[in-house]
Design goal:
Layout: H1 5-21, H2 23-30, H3 32-61, H4 65-87, H5 112-125
Length: 129
């Protein structure tokens, strides 16, 4: 259920007053520190992936199999860290909806089947867009 104009205005005023009184707490609530941490993890993961790639090629060129395996495992670990940071919200701006505490996405971004069922229900109810 969307907020009314009055409720949205009051909420915006509350956010501004909180940010003015305690900027650290407000930034924590907005998740900026958490997102900055995820960005750092993602950057380190990309660097780790590139380092693993160098190790993989060095192991292949020098015929040291163990070095290639270490490089490959490093690449896998870095890719896992990057994907974890991405899922936690690297590219998400503060205006975008976040996942609920249960980990479910917001209603608007459901699966394809869910969106088609909602569209079908709207058509059946006569609320066709």
């Amino acid at each position: 259920m969307p907020l009314s104009d009055e409720e949205a205005r009051l909420l915006h005023q509350l956010e501004q007053s909180l940010a003015a009184e305690d900027p650290d707490f407000a930034s924590t609530l907005r998740g900026s520190k958490f997102m900055a941490h995820n960005r750092r993890v993602a950057i380190l993961a990309v660097l780790g992936f590139l380092g693993g790639l160098v190790l993989l090629f060095a192991g292949a060129v020098s015929a040291m199999t163990w070095l290639g395996v270490v490089g490959f495992v490093t690449m896998l670990g870095a890719a896992y860290l990057f994907m974890t940071a991405w899922k936690r919200g690297i590219g998400r701006s503060s205006e975008e909806p976040v996942r609920s505490p249960g980990g479910k996405p917001p209603k608007a971004s459901g699966t394809f089947v869910d969106r088609m069922e909602e569209r079908w229900q709207r058509r059946r109810d006569g609320d066709e867009r």
